[in-house]
Amino acid sequence: MRYILLVFVLSVAAVVAIAGKRGDISRQPPIELFPDMDRQPKLRPQTETRNLFWQDNLSSRLPVAGTVARNSPFELTPANTGRVPGTTNFVAINPMPITHQFLARGRDRYQISCAPCHGAVGDGKGVLSQYGMLPANLHDASVKKIVQQPDGELFHTISNGKGVMAGYASTIAIEDRWAIVAYVRVLQLSRLGALADIPAEHQAALMK
Ligand code: HEC
User: Fold this and answer.
1) Interval 138-156: pLDDT, tens
2) Measuring from atom 20 of ligand 1, which residue has the nearest CA?
3) Are the CB atoms for 138 and 123 separated by under 8 Å?
4) How many other C-beta atoms are found inside a 10 Å radius of the C-beta of residue 12?
5) CA gap 76, 72 in Å, rounded
6) Which position has the higher pLDDT, 138 or 19?
7) Which residue from 91, 88, 63 is spatially nearest to 181, judged by alpha carbons?
């Protein structure tokens, strides 16, 4: 009974000494009871080491050829993304030069990749529409405003998909996607164009 006060004082001192320092910032290295995995042998990524495994002595492999970094020149080129660099706005006009050959390529690719759903003329009545799928009518100016969308947005839809439509970035090359965008415009004009859109000297020939 005589020592109980002493034991009490000593244990209070011990608790304060150990727990009382918690949360303090110190320049001294901490006392490590369990070092866990604080220090372990390892290689820094992509540095030269005396690595015995790879012939070039690099600690890790270089990125695969063709790897594209985020914010690289690739991403800052509108033709690759359909967007104005540094913004989320879509480019208004197809950045590729539009030639007869380019449009023919677009029709070819459209008929392979899009027509099964959207129909050969773009009215959304492709063969898959008979099996429960509801592809958009690409001429629809009123409801979905695809006609008014900037070219970059069409490119984005083809690349990444939209709603229930899947993206085709992995199967249609970038230039071919722009060719399809141009051909979709052809389809839209074939429906929605007016006689007045045609140069005056050619109008008479069409009316024959
Ligand atoms: C497997 C069927 C399928 C194929 C193939 C397909 N689409 Fe679609 N597409 C759809 C469906 C379904 C929708 C409606 C998506 C929704 O509203 O959820 C759609 C929507 C769209 C839209 C409207 C997007 C919007 O802003 O509302 C565009 C434009 C479009 N497709 C273009 C294309 C083009 C160009 C191709 C060819 C590269 C293509 N699609 C291939 C099924 C398809």
Assistant:
1) 988 765 589 999 999 999 9
2) 136
3) yes
4) 10
5) 7
6) 138
7) 91
